[in-house]
Amino acid sequence: MKWILLYLRGIIDVGLLYDRGSSTRGSVENFVDSHFSGSLNMKGSLTNYIFTHLECVISWRAILKFIVALSIIENKFMALKKVLKETLWFKCLVDNLSLSFKLIVMYCDNQSIIHLVKN
User: Fold this and answer.
1) Which of 26, 51, 71, 118 has a CA that sits 20 to 30 A from residue 109's CA?
2) Could you tell me the residue range of the domain that residue 70 belongs to?
3) Is residue 105 situated within a structural domain?
4) DSSP string of 15-83?
């Protein structure tokens, strides 16, 4: 407990600062990546995503999944589906807090997944 309090005292001036009315401006950006783990000990795929607003990180996560996918595209699609669920949850949270954003933008690094989602 002592180490936690020392840590919190050391980061007391760290935070997200927005000016008045900034919650109604801009958009939330979501960056998604998924790849197979390169370690022999960890067999699975790693999914990473990060939410940003006004260039501030508001949420992030890295998940090691042990789901078998038959292709890289299927693996990335499952990761994008997971992040889309988190995005919908985040949108409901923002709506319940009476905040609004112009839009939520999702970025993915795979052209095949982008074309698959557009269809």
Assistant:
1) 26
2) 32-118
3) yes
4) -----TTGGGSS-EEEEEEEEE---SS--SEEEEEEEEETTEEEEEEEEEE----SSHHHHHHHHHHHH
Torsion angle of the four alpha carbons 22, 23, 24, 29, in this order, in degrees rounded to the nearest 10: 100
- In a domain? residue 67: yes
Q: What is the mean pLDDT of each run of 10 residues along the chain (119 residues)?
A: 81 69 66 69 75 80 75 79 84 79 78 76
- Exposure string (b/e) for 39-76, b if CB count within 10 Å is 16 or more? eeeeeebbbebbbbbbeeeeeeeeeebeeebeeeeebb
d(Cα 85, Cα 69) in Å, to the nearest integer?
19
Which pLDDT does position 33 carry in this prediction? 81
